[in-house]
Amino acid sequence: VQLQASGGGSVQAGASLRLSCTASGGTFSTLKMAWFRQSAGREREFVAAVNWSGLSTQYADSVKGRFTISKNNDERTLYLQMDNLKPEDTAIYYCAAGFPGGYLPDSPKGYTYFGQGTQVTVSS
Fold first, then answer.
1. By C-alpha distance, which of 94, 115, 124, 121 is closest to 9?
2. How confident is the model at residue 101 (pLDDT cuts 50, 70, 90)?
3. Percent of the chain with pLDDT over 90
């Protein structure tokens, strides 16, 4: 499975962005997926996850109520709608895909495939 993330950019605080992650190869509809992010000098952190069907989601406390993750199996695409962005959301955002079961949804160990990342910069 190859993942291609896009949609990042530079915005002001309070603005919105929508990230996309398109998958090629593999059986997309059977995969759980997630977004992680990493900012300078910090470890990669969990942002949001969605199960294989797209019906179950989980969010980090820092983005709950502002970000929405969704998965379109027909389009083979994962989305992250980010509203009311804050400067602390500045990071490289990575999409990830993995097989159901095993690790909890917020653990990067549960994901086999990672995309190349897309930069999000939020200025105050």
1. 121
2. confident
3. 96
Q: What type of residue is 69?
A: I
Residue length of the chain = 124
Task: Kindly list the distances between the CA atom of residue 22 and the CA atoms of 12, 88, 104, in Å, as whole numbers in the listed order.
Answer: 26, 26, 23
**Per-residue pLDDT tens for 59-98?**
999 999 999 999 999 999 999 999 999 999 999 999 999 9
Residue 50 burial (CB count, 10 A): 23
Q: Token digits for 117? A: 């990342």
DSSP 8: -
